[in-house]
Amino acid sequence: MSLTNFRTLGRSGLVISPLTLGTMTFGTEGWGSGKDESRAVFDAYVEAGGNSIDTADLYSVGHSEEMLGEFIAERSLRHRLVLATKSGFNRHKGDPNAGGNGAKAINDGVEASLRRLKTDHIDLYWQHVWDMVTPAEEVLETMGNLVRAGKIRYFGLSNVPSWYVAKMATLAGAYRVPGPSALQLEYSLTERNIELEYLPAAREFGLGVLPWSPLSGGFLSGKYRREDIDPTVEAGKSSPDSAPANDLGRLRKPNPSSANRFSERNWKILDVLREVAAEVGRPPAQVALAWACGRSGITSPILGASRLDQLLDNIASLDIALTPEQMDRLTTASAPKAAYPARIFSPDMNRMVFGGTTVSGWHA
Length: 364
Hints:
This protein is an alpha/beta fold and 364 residues long. The chain has helices spanning 35-47, 63-74, 103-117, 136-148, 162-175, 198-205, 245-252, 264-280, 284-293, 308-315, 324-333, 347-353, and strands at 7-8, 15-16, 20-22, 52-54, 82-87, 122-127, 152-158, 182-186, 208-212, 302-303. The strands form 2 sheets. The chain has an 8-stranded parallel sheet, covered by helices on one side. The longest helix has 17 residues, at 264-280.
């Protein structure tokens, strides 16, 4: 498989590559890269045939969008790329309307992103996060108006509750207005909770799924070792000299959108990943991506490469063919623990409900 093995975004007609280039690392704010390295990453992705680019107004305080706009214009590539960006997080302290999901915030966010990206439309516009207060009806109406105005082509939902996904998709169908086309959620060998409700919802409503952090923030690259991690080091404090302090600090520090990666469960998953990687003769990161790409319901994992060599290694994962036994071993080792009520929806419950027989649904 290659980046030109395209697929549709859910039931929509939008066509994207099996791996999406994430650009959170474009810009030197945080742990990103400067313009030259970012341009090299961008060039390599599009030259390999990739067409799906993901950014956000928040990334590098808008510099990621600005770089992308420049890179795309330099090569006159706007017509062949699926360009996605997001709004939702606040970029102006003290101004509550500069963030969230209200009509003002979304419309202002779109206009600002269009300017930075040097384009007249956004192919896929993401609600970056649920703000916990704005009605879903307002978001649906705002996004629909933007679609009708030609400023966005499609929209998606990121970091939202599963009931919110179902409500918005149902409202859109009932009122015959543009609805969400995709979900962007964390998914990897160490974080599989979306399998319990989100992936079934995506199948039900025809939504594409673009996982973020498919390498668990770099943990699944295999560059960290148990013996290098001091469990007594507090979150955000200094880290062992044997690993990059900024990387370890980033993985340890409290983050409302991801858990601490260095748990005993995750180390056990990494052990199995290393075993499978040794069997296929490929780096753990490539095997972790191959597993994610091979999972049912997954459309296009988002890559977060800050260096050219990282991107090329990630793209190389597309030619890995894991055996069913290897896929099963990784899946079993990383199985999420279902909470109620998800844990009762099992084959045993199916047989109990249907009098000892087994009944499969039409889509099974």
